[in-house]
Design goal:
alpha+beta; Arc Repressor Mutant, subunit A; Beta-Lactamase; 2 domains; 6-stranded antiparallel sheet; 3-stranded antiparallel sheet; 8 helices
Length: 253
């Protein structure tokens, strides 16, 4: 079965992101009923997603996220760590690098705060997308349908300040896009504030997030834009080293 699954997955390319059963069967030179069983089993296992209207299949978000973790993990961490160290030293707060894994954000690198009282982050920590600055930064530039597919229903509350209303969360993501960074204020833990910004690859896709975690005793809502500035600069620095070049506005502005 694994060999058959690999044969099916090999059919998907950037130019052929979706496949119907008949098309896949023709490409594999297999009977349609056989390929239909394979693809149904792969959907049940979480490897593929099926469009309920068209019946066509695409690679699942979970599989795509795991591929990103595997493909970018080592090089991305190596590129980002010196920048995270500077960010932690500049802000005095713990700096994190997170990527998406399925329907969660996961820390893949951390530079600890130099201060004795700090938020403790760790590599491998998993974060809910709707209640973390990293998670918001990772999903804010996705299509609304993709975001809805990733989020649990209902959205769980971790504190009284967690955003649990889907419409309110969509507004939060719109705000994140407009200002270029995400924030959380006591949404994951009552003593935690965070600011996160997206990291883009050479194609402009958001592949990671840089964030700082701040004890609420050192935070001030009015200071969040100030805290965000070095985070955005750090994320931009990682993006540039990943080959991203920001588009130039008309007129050179």
């Amino acid at each position: 079965m694994l060999r058959n699954a690999r044969a099916v997955l090999d059919l998907f390319t950037l130019d052929r992101a979706e496949l119907g059963v008949a098309e896949a069967a023709a490409l594999l030179n297999r009977h349609k009923s056989t390929v239909s069983r394979w693809m149904s089993a792969m959907e049940a296992a979480g490897f593929l997603e099926r469009d309920r209207q068209t019946g066509r299949y695409r690679v699942s978000m979970r599989l795509a996220a795991l591929a990103e973790v595997a493909r970018r993990g080592t090089s991305l961490q190596r590129i980002a760590y010196p920048i995270l160290e500077v960010l932690a030293a500049t802000t005095g707060e713990t700096a994190n690098l997170a990527v998406m894994d399925g329907n969660e954000a996961v820390n893949v690198e951390v530079a600890e705060s130099p201060q004795p009282i700090m938020h403790v982050g760790w590599v491998g920590r998993r974060l809910p997308l709707h209640a973390s600055a990293s998670g918001k930064a990772l999903v804010a530039w996705l299509e609304s349908a993709e975001v809805r597919a990733l989020l649990p229903s209902p959205l769980p509350a971790y504190t009284p300040w967690t955003i649990t209303d889907p419409a309110a969360f969509e507004e939060e993501l719109a705000l994140t896009r407009s200002r270029g960074y995400a924030t959380t204020w006591a949404e994951l833990a009552p003593d935690l504030v965070a600011v996160g910004a997206p990291v883009r690859d050479h194609r402009g896709r958001v592949v990671a997030a840089v964030a700082i975690s701040v004890p609420i005793s050192r935070a001030d809502r009015e200071r969040l834009p100030q805290l965000a500035e070095p985070v955005v600069r750090a994320a931009e620095a990682v993006s540039q080293r990943m080959g991203y070049r920001a588009p130039v506005c008309a007129g050179g502005v």
